[in-house]
From TrEMBL:
<dbReference type="InterPro" id="IPR033132">
    <property type="entry name" value="GH_1_N_CS"/>
</dbReference>
<dbReference type="InterPro" id="IPR018120">
    <property type="entry name" value="Glyco_hydro_1_AS"/>
</dbReference>
<dbReference type="InterPro" id="IPR001360">
    <property type="entry name" value="Glyco_hydro_1"/>
</dbReference>
<feature type="active site" description="Nucleophile">
    <location>
        <position position="378"/>
    </location>
</feature>
<dbReference type="GO" id="GO:0008706">
    <property type="term" value="F:6-phospho-beta-glucosidase activity"/>
</dbReference>
<protein>
    <submittedName>
        <fullName>6-phospho-beta-glucosidase</fullName>
        <ecNumber>3.2.1.86</ecNumber>
    </submittedName>
</protein>
<dbReference type="InterPro" id="IPR017853">
    <property type="entry name" value="GH"/>
</dbReference>
<comment type="similarity">
    <text>Belongs to the glycosyl hydrolase 1 family.</text>
</comment>
<dbReference type="Pfam" id="PF00232">
    <property type="entry name" value="Glyco_hydro_1"/>
</dbReference>
<keyword id="KW-0326">Glycosidase</keyword>
<keyword id="KW-0378">Hydrolase</keyword>
Amino acid sequence: MSNDIAKGFPKGFLWGGATAANQCEGGYLEGNKGLSTVDVVPAGKDRFPVLKGEMKMLECDSEHFYPSHEAIDFYHHYKEDIALLGEMGFKTFRLSLSWARIFPNGDDTEPNEEGLKFYDDIFDECLKYGIEPLVTITHFDVPMHLVKTIGSWRSRKMVDYYERLCEVIFNRYKDKVKYWLTFNEINMLLHLPFIGAGLVFEDGENQEAVKYQAAHHQLVASAKATKIAHRINPEFKIGCMLAAANTYPFTCAPEDVWKSMEKDRENYFFIDVQSRGEYPNYAKKMFERLNIKLAMEDEDEELLKNNTVDFISFSYYASRLTSADPNVKAETSGNAFKTLRNPHLKASEWGWQIDPLGLRITMNSLYDRYQKPLFIVENGLGAVDIPDENGYVEDDYRIEYLRKHIKAMKDAISIDGVELWGYTTWGCIDLVSAGTGEMKKRYGFIYVDKDNEGNGTLKRSRKKSFYWYKKVIETNGEVL
């Protein structure tokens, strides 16, 4: 056994931060970009019905405010923003591509050169500061044209369009990007189907059947992406991405323990296929019970089996809690994942329960299950930041949250022997919240002057956590 297991963070550990095109880019129709799913998702009371695919909104209207249209205008500020990440000493920067920026309609025969060049410029800027890009191919992002014409991921044709996208980007950026993720939080498709897969439901439709058929198409697309990537550049590392967190049983009653296991399997299902290469038996039995018959093509099973991912990436914000007892009803608020309130944990302003040990538990669960390297690609605390007149925020609460989670990661590596490649905190620069559409729910080390209504100068300023995280990276996690 090598001696370096017990020494904390390994040499070359990839410290950094994460964003998504749809939450930070803005420039929503600039550079010949097409309309994307998130561009039609409003802020306010209609947001969740649209995210869930229950309220049909296929165009923008004048009644709503759409935060993605400008977001934090990374489209025009990327040089300044990446320079700040470079100043912090980032080793990696996780960002996503906007599919509609590269193929405006999704089914175009030729890609949009302006969109491709935009990402070339971003990657060049990253590499200038020694920052390794970590690229999510689709992060809650489908060209609206494909939603309107073929129903998005409910259609098998999506696999072909996604394949075309992958061929183009892998060839174009093969010397600039090494780490790729196929789908962001792929399990979110079950919870917020419109944002996860561009699904809009019709009255009386079997929603579960539609969701799992769309999931099959995404899983096949992910396997095809992995196959193409390894052909184009064998050095590429391709990962899947799970919205992760163990579900605890509310009590030690066996019924509660069983319920928590079922809840975990609901999410593991996707990664079981992407990492092990086949549908698990528990999923096949579930399909039988729900009378779901997946439409598969002859080569699908072989494709899934032969093209598993190289690493498992995941987001972790809070653990979850469940009970088999219908009378236990104390739920937390503000999360796509409904969960019971854990009396042993404190919660953030948005009801997310703060559980650093839960991160270590989740890391061990994933590593025990898959025996593949892990990469934490989202983690952080959404909070209301009050800046002074210079835009400086004394965000000790954020530092405290991150410190405890990094300590839990360190324990998982050095005590438990978990293999972890890197850590990218979520929203390293303030951005629009995917769930609520707010700006005031901030995660960043960098403050952006903008409010929920879209007002502000967009001026960037360093928070206290900026300097703290810089020291963490400098010392490879030794000074927390």
